[in-house]
């Protein structure tokens, strides 16, 4: 979508072996709360988050119904950084008062702020609809090797998530398994997140997401019953009224994790033939929070590839 906006002369085709509701992004809680990528400069991560927050905040002020606003992150001991880098992007960030903290007797410190939470499946469908309206073609296809695309396309953008491990042989990329519960508990109106990032309660438009787990290196997509009980107990200790939650649905996703998100240009070359590629993968646990920002940057890199192609005598399929 960002490419169609920044490079309107391009004809865009989306190839994917799975579309919503069967992607990893459909499992995400959809919370705008960044996870730090250790090898990506903070100013770049902050810019990605800011662009994503601004984009979704504008949509939240419309008739669309997949976004809501909420707050409360609690810590058993004060975090290393009392002011996270994103504190001036979310709204009304402040330490929690003693009175507020009384609600969490096991926690000594807390942050209150308003951020956005998106219901991912309807958002993904909304994006698909907008994409189709631009004339973009969408095909179900598994790509075995980026090079196979060289005859059909001038530029390839690789947004394969964890699939990039196989597609481009990236050994830095690994799964971090996450199991969450989606429950019916419409009385829960505020989000509560333990600062260790393991336990969270995120009310959405229809369901509340209860999390979670972070299992590095696990490829299992099967729900685990013991983990379900553990997540439920941990969430009930933060919000006891969840004991009355109904219709527990279990979801598992594999976060496409690495030390830094790979938003980068590369030129593949074989026998004098070149194929410009823009990579945009490795968003780990915080991909939803930075998706628009990284997509804008990737679209900008596509613009650079177009300039190079236009400057060369290459045959253009643009
Ligand atoms: C339980 C859980 C909760 C989360 N909650 C949040 C949250 O609240 N906030 C947040 O910011 N982030 C969250 N995340 C992280 C977020 O979901 C990810 O960072 C993000 O979804 C990654 O998106 P992606 O588009 O890169 O990957 P994907 O959604 O996996 O998309 C990759 C696409 O590429 C396709 N593909 C892959 N390989 C190929 C191939 N060879 N050929 C063709 N197609 C291919 C796939 O079919 C898929 O459609 C959560 C993750 C989990 C697991
Ligand atoms: O970390 C969070 O609180 C949001 C959910 C998430 O990003 C995750 O489980 O990976």
Automatic annotation (TrEMBL):
EC identifiers of the protein: 1.4.3.1
Cofactor: FAD
Reaction(s) catalysed (UniProt annotation): D-aspartate + O2 + H2O = oxaloacetate + H2O2 + NH4(+); D-glutamate + O2 + H2O = 2-oxoglutarate + H2O2 + NH4(+)
Keywords: FAD, Flavoprotein, Oxidoreductase, Peroxisome, Signal
Binding-site positions, D-dopa: 200, 255
Gene Ontology biological process terms from the UniProt entry: D-amino acid catabolic process; L-aspartate catabolic process
InterPro entries according to UniProt: D-amino_acid_oxidase_CS, DAO, FAD-dep_OxRdtase
Top-level taxon of origin: Eukaryota
Major site of localization recorded for this protein: other
One of the record's GO cellular component terms: peroxisomal matrix
Domain named FAD dependent oxidoreductase: residues: 1-301
MF GO annotations: D-aspartate oxidase activity; FAD binding
Residue stretches in coiled coil: none
Function of the molecule: Selectively catalyzes the oxidative deamination of acidic amino acids. Suppresses the level of D-aspartate in the brain, an amino acid that can act as an agonist for glutamate receptors. Protects the organism from the toxicity of D-amino acids. May also function in the intestine.
Similarity field: Belongs to the DAMOX/DASOX family.
Name assigned to this protein: D-aspartate oxidase
Source organism: Catharus ustulatus (Russet-backed thrush)
């Amino acid at each position: 979508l960002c490419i169609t906006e920044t490079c309107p002369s391009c004809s865009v085709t989306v190839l994917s072996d799975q579309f919503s509701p069967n992607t990893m992004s459909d499992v995400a809680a959809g919370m705008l709360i960044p996870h730090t990528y250790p090898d990506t400069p903070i100013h770049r991560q902050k810019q990605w988050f800011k662009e994503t927050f601004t984009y979704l905040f504008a949509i939240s002020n419309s008739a669309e119904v997949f976004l809501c606003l909420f707050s409360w992150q609690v810590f058993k001991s004060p975090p290393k950084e009392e002011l996270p880098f994103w504190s001036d992007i979310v709204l009304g960030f402040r330490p929690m008062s003693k009175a507020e903290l009384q609600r969490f007797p096991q926690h000594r410190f807390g942050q209150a702020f308003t951020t956005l939470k998106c219901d991912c499946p309807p958002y993904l469908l909304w994006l698909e609809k907008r994409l189709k309206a631009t004339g973009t073609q969408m095909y179900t296809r598994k790509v075995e090797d980026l090079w196979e695309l060289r005859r059909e396309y001038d530029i390839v953008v690789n947004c394969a998530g964890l699939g990039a491990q196989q597609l481009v042989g990236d050994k830095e990329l690994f799964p971090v398994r996450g199991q969450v519960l989606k429950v019916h508990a419409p009385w829960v109106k505020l989000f509560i997140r333990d600062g260790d990032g393991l336990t969270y309660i995120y009310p959405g438009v229809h369901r509340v997401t209860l999390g979670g787990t972070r299992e590095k290196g696990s490829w299992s997509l099967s729900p685990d019953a013991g983990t379900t009980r553990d997540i439920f107990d941990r969430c009930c200790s933060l919000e006891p009224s969840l004991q009355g939650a109904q219709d527990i649905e279990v979801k598992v996703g594999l976060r496409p994790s690495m030390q830094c998100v790979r938003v980068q240009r590369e030129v593949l070359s074989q026998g004098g033939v070149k194929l410009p590629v823009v990579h945009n993968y490795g968003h780990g646990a915080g991909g939803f929070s930075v998706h628009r920002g990284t997509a804008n940057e990737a679209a900008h890199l596509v613009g650079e590839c177009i300039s190079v192609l236009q400057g060369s005598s290459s045959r253009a399929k643009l």
